[in-house]
Amino acid sequence: MAYDPNNIFAKILRGEIPCKKVHEDDHTLAFHDINPQAPVHVLVIPKGAYVSMEDFTARASDGEIAALFRAVAQVAEMVGVTAEGWRMLANVGANGGQEVPHLHIHVFGGRRLGPMLVKG
Ligand code: AMP
To answer: What pLDDT score was predicted for residue 120?
Structure first.
């Protein structure tokens, strides 16, 4: 899938749409999900134009890849979920249920998160 520069996260990265920022560094931005599915629900995104995990790992630099995973762990620490436990998740493509075509990693926490997948 080609990258759509008008996707909602690209607009957030350009400052065209506001976000509730949690963390930012040279390669990543993290912000609260607008429709949280848990008491803590933060999205961590690379600043580069990558649609999916396979696009990201094929084209991003080692520095960008390291920064994304470090940012996920730093965000989990910052929002206070590491002691009780938390979940990271990336939906990719149609079967994954990906709604926004810019790679994003969800960070969930703040309650027992239940089974990994909904049955059915
Ligand atoms: P996914 O289904 O994995 O593509 O997740 C997309 C997520 O983006 C959903 O959890 C939405 O609630 C969230 N989302 C959509 N628009 C915004 C926005 N403007 N700010 C923050 N989160 C958003």
So the answer is: 59
